[in-house]
Amino acid sequence: MPPLPSKTPNALLHGALDALILKTLIRGPSHGYAIARFLEDATGESVLIEDGSLYPALYRLERKGWVEAEWGTSELGRRAKLYRITKPGREQLARETALWRQFSVGVSKVLFA
Amino acid sequence: MAPIFRRRFEGALRVIRRSLRSWLWRVPVELEVEEEIALHLELRTRELVARGVDPKSAHEQALLRMGDLRTVKRELLELSRKRDRAMKITTWIEELRHDVAFAFRQLKGAPAFTLIAVTTLALGIGANSAIFALVDATLLRPLPFGEPDRIVAIHETSAQTNRSAASPNNMSDWNKRSRSFEQIAGYTQGVGGMVMAGADGNAETVTRQWVSAGIFDVLGVKAIAGRTFLQSDDEQRARVVVMSETFWRTRFNSDPGVIGREIRLDGASWTVVGVVPGNFQLVGQSSIWGMRPILGAPERARGAYVFAAVGRLKPGVAMEAAQADLANVASGLAREYPQTNAGRGVTLQSIHDSIIGGDLRMTSMMFLGVVGFVLLICCANVANLLLARATARTRELAVRAALGAGRRRIIRQLLTESVVLSILGGALGVVLGAGIISVAPSLIPDGLIPPTVTLAFDLRVVSFCAAAALLVGVLFGIAPAWQATSFRSAEVMGSDTRTTTGGGGRLRGLLVMGEVATAVLLLFGAGLLLRSLIAVDAFDRGYRAESVLTMLVDPLGSKYPTPELLQQFFDEVEGEVRATPGVADVGWTSTLPLAFFEDGPVSYEIVGEAPLEDSHRPASEFQVVSPTYFSTIDLLVVAGRAFDSRDTRTAAPVAIVNEGFAKALGRRSPIGLRVALRPASAPQSEPVIREIVGVARQIRGRPDEVSDLVQLYAPLAQALTDDVYMVVRPKSGEATALVPGVRAAISRIDKEQLVSIRDVVTLADIDWAATGRHRFRAVMVASFAALALVLAMVGVFGILAYSVQQRIRDLGVRRALGATTNDVVRLVVSSAARVIAGGAVIGLLLSAIFSRLIVTVLFGVQPLDFTTFAGVTAVLAVAAVASMAGPAWRAAKVDPAAALRVK
Questions:
Q1: Contact residues, chain B, for A83 at CB < 8 Å
Q2: B215 C-beta neighbours (distance < 10 Å), count
Q3: The domain that contains A72 carries what CATH number?
Q4: Of B697, B546, B713, which Cα lies nearest the Cα of B636?
Q5: Which residues between 54 and 113 in chain B have a beta carbon less than 8 angstroms from any beta carbon of chain A?
Q6: Other CB atoms closer than 10 Å to residue B557's CB: what's the count?
Q7: Is B354 contained in some domain?
Q8: Mean pLDDT of B465-470
Q9: Whole-number pLDDT of residue B242
């Protein structure tokens, strides 16, 4: 049995948000609103992410070097900050995905037994 | 595009984008956050409106999803500030690493330049680190006492001196009456010897210093075994000693059982009470400290000024307050004991100033100044090398500038190079400095550095080196870096490198001029000190003997109980030594010519003149000598006669005075005058009346002595004392060769006496000790000045050689047009000569100003000495010719045809 994720549920949820953002950026660089919209559509609005917590998460990811930001142009022709996943970001996404799989498998084993 | 190339290309693009973002697209973080959130809200609102929500509630919904706008913005601001800070540091470190690597590549590519620059810097930093160690030990580091700030030296003052020692009675009264001190104690200024008899019957001489009971408490020194002295030791007048850790370890094998044990010193029994740490020393190296009681001293001892007094201030008491307090006590004592204390006051001094002394302070500061100047010259030289290199690198730098490197960035790169250079030099300098420190103790004259301070090469010195290296690196790098980046890229790249040398050349000329000026200043100082040394060496000490053996012979107390027996012993030893082969003359004296007077002065009155008050009687040094003393050390008796066999113990007491004494008498001829002598410490005692029979030449204890010492000699037979020096002059050769013969001769008279012979030195040694500090200063400063001169001339050579190289084509053209060799040489040399002459004038002007600062260490020479001025100019002229000869020769040899082909 692989080592248990030593994460509290809270940290796990945090990690899940990070993973969702990184996963979104795999498709290509996008600005904050586009990320929010994609997640709403992809989860069918079943996972509600407050816009006010999306941006801090993005900034933290940037500081950790998992995404990088640059100025680009938005649909409105205005200056927009575009986020792009980095190589360390992809590696982090892989780690988080694995963790989440373990967690959900474990939880499902109990709940659906 | 193949995938691998695309990846590389994208990687490269990303790097560029990132740097673009950080350097070009920089927006304030406030704006960044504001814009991002605003865009988000707007996009959200638009989408809701598109879905049919009315604009007002769409905007409200968008806001609602964002949460508390102010909190979010604040959080984002904080996060982005942190991010920027981290990024800045990473970028900075990244760039530094790149710059350092680049610097190493550059230096590797120019090994000759690197070698010269690093060596120059190592010399400068090494010399500075060694001198810093001296300054640190003497001026900066606290003394090895507990809370040294609270310890003060206390001097008695009188009309004659403001640094008199203190009497035991005064010290104990100060202790009782002053309120500012925890305690006041004292130690004798000299370290003497005592004969310690061992259990095995062997005896040895140990060094001993007398102290009062409170000394260790005042100095804050704790015993490492046993205890130090107590007040009760003083009250009981106990015979107790404390020994040094070193002595305890070497002589007693660190045996704790020695505490409380009795040892026999000079025939008496003393109790060992404790051991104090090895680094504790006051004056000279002592193995044991014997307690001298000061409580209940007889009243006649009030005039015996034997202790160097020190006091520990109560916490929070300022030295000024303590001074006022003690002065008050002293004036009370002066009223109570007018006979001894009238006109006597006190003055306080910090213990550090008292122990380190003005001479050492001056010497340390002077050396520091000198090596500082040497380091500046080193900097100037390396800066010069860098300037020359920068000129050659102008094109490279211009290209980098054109590719987008900012001026600050290029300057930073160049500074990194110079700091790397200086750190390499500093590392080598540390090694050099450690080497100097390890050999220094053997070069420093005895007595210049008190035993309380230790010269150490430690972390403090290494940190000094590191700081010096960094400072130096920036100092010599900044001008060349500035110079190198003052160009317009397009011009430089489009032109020949030579056109850009003008400004650099001027700067280099100025630097070399500064070097020459500094070297001249140091040469001048060295010249003055050398003149002082010559004056000291040629100084007439009054006696002529060069090599005379001196040994202290100390007949053991109980062996010769009567004066007759003691006299007989001296006579027999003298006879036996005189018969020893190689001995030319032998005599006895209580004090050596250049040594400290241990007997203390006597006061005198002329018999037949009006009697004087105690405190108004003149004083004289008192020395007891045998008749042959004068002939042995070749001291002339200039009037009257020397002592001879007539002056026996029972004959009429006689005396010989020195020229200083005779001068003090005024017009009266001293011969035939009778003087009444009393020990200065016992003004009430019955005087000894002596008739003056001769006048001896003045002996000057120290060459730099200002006032003429007043001295009176009495014949040994009439003032017998033990503890006398035997002086022995050889027929020829070194006096030390006589040691075995003389020892054998003494042992033939009395075998036991051998053990009490000590202090075997020659007069030449004593002489050296007196002139040592002059020699040390002169040699040190002269060496540094020579180093400075060589460095400055290397600088001159550098600019001249460089300018010749740059002007080869120009010179060739001139030759082709008919210029003679002379014309060419004059053309080349004239610019360098102007630099040297300018430097020399500035240097001599500076010398005239600065030489006044060292007037206290000069002897027999004025600060504005013409001979030194002339000498320095001559030395500089020779050095200048030597440095210019090579490049001038090269210029003269320019072949017009070949020169024109030069690219």
A1: none
A2: 27
A3: 1.10.10.10
A4: B697
A5: 65-69, 71-72, 75-76, 79-80, 82-83, 86
A6: 12
A7: no
A8: 86
A9: 94
Domain end marker among B343, B373, B394: B343
How many structural domains compose chain B? 4
Q: Looking at the partner chain, which of B17, B21, B76 has a beta carbon nearest the beta carbon of A56?
A: B76
Q: What is the pLDDT of residues B115-146, one digit of tens each?
A: 888 988 898 888 888 888 888 887 777 777 88
Q: Choose the final residue of a domain: B71, B89, B109.
A: B109
Average pLDDT over residues B364-368: 85
Please state, in angstroms and as integers, the Cα–Cα distance from residue B892 to each residue in B158, B498, B699, B889, B895, following that order: 74, 21, 62, 5, 9
Work out how many CB contacts closer than 8 A connect A with B: 70
Give yes or no: residues B531 and B410 share one domain.
Answer: yes
Query: Would you call B769 an interface residue with chain A, using a CB distance cutoff of 8 Å?
Result: no
pLDDT in tens, B787-801: 889 888 888 888 788
Q: pLDDT digits over B743-777, tens only?
A: 788 878 876 655 455 556 666 666 666 677 778 88
B309 and B364 both lie in a single domain: no
Q: Is residue B545 part of a domain?
A: no
Residue A50 lies in a domain: yes
Looking at the complex, report in whole angstroms how far the Cα of residue A5 sits from the nearest Cα belonging to chain B: 27
Which of B22, B24, B36 best probes binding to A when mutated, by most A CB atoms within 10 angstroms? B36
Answer whether residue B606 is part of any domain.
yes
The answer to whether residues B581 and B517 belong to one domain is no
B40 vs A33: CB contact, 8 Å cut-off?
Answer: yes
Q: How far is B406 from chain A (nearest CA, A)?
A: 23
Same domain, B314 and B390: no
Q: What does DSSP assign to residue B859?
A: -
Q: Based on the fold, state whether residues B774 and B718 are members of the same structural domain.
A: no
Its pTM stands at 0.66
Chain A's closest residue to B80, CA to CA, is A59
Considering only the beta carbons, identify the residue of B43, B69, B86 that sits closest to A33.
B43
Whole-complex ipTM:
0.88
Q: Does the distance separating the beta carbons of A56 and B72 come in below 8 Å?
A: yes
* Torsion angle of the four alpha carbons A98, A103, A104, A107, in this order, in degrees rounded to the nearest 10: 160
B713 backbone dihedrals φ, ψ, rounded to 5°: -105, 140
Domain assignment of residue B93, yes or no: yes
**Chain A residues within 8 A of B76 when measuring between CB atoms:** 55-56, 59
Tell which of B65, B74, B77 to mutate to test the A interface (max A CBs under 10 Å): B65
Full residue range of the structural domain in which residue B71 is found: 3-109
- The whole-angstrom distance between B413's CA and the closest CA on chain A is 27
Q: Is the pLDDT higher at B518 or at B703?
A: B518
Q: Are residues B333 and B415 in the same domain?
A: no
Distance from CA of B32 to the nearest CA of A (A): 8
Q: Is residue A7 part of a domain?
A: no
Range of the domain at A90: 29-105
Let me know if residue A2 belongs to a domain: no
Half-sphere exposure of B494 (CA within 13 A, CB side): 4
More confident residue, B551 or B656: B656
In a domain, A99, yes or no: yes
b/e burial code for range A85-101 (CB count within 10 A of at least 16 → b): bbeebeebbeebeebbe
Model confidence over B402-443: pLDDT tens digits?
A: 777 777 888 888 888 888 989 999 999 999 888 888 887 777
| Residues B607 and B523 reside in one and the same domain | no
- Do B635 and B628 contact (CB within 8 A), yes or no? no
Contacts of B17 in chain A (CB under 8 A): 70
The mean pLDDT of B314-336, rounded to a whole number, is 92
Confidence of residue B1 (pLDDT cuts 50, 70, 90): very low
Q: Please indicate whether, in this complex, the C-beta atoms of A59 and B83 are within 8 angstroms of each other.
A: yes
- Between B48-52, B597-601, B869-873, the lowest mean confidence (pLDDT) is in B597-601
Residue B603's contacts (CB-CB under 8 Å, 6 or more residues apart) are B614, B617, B618, B619, B620, B677, B678, B679, B680, B683
Residue B32 sits in the same domain as residue B65: yes
Contact B203, B196 (CB under 8 A): yes
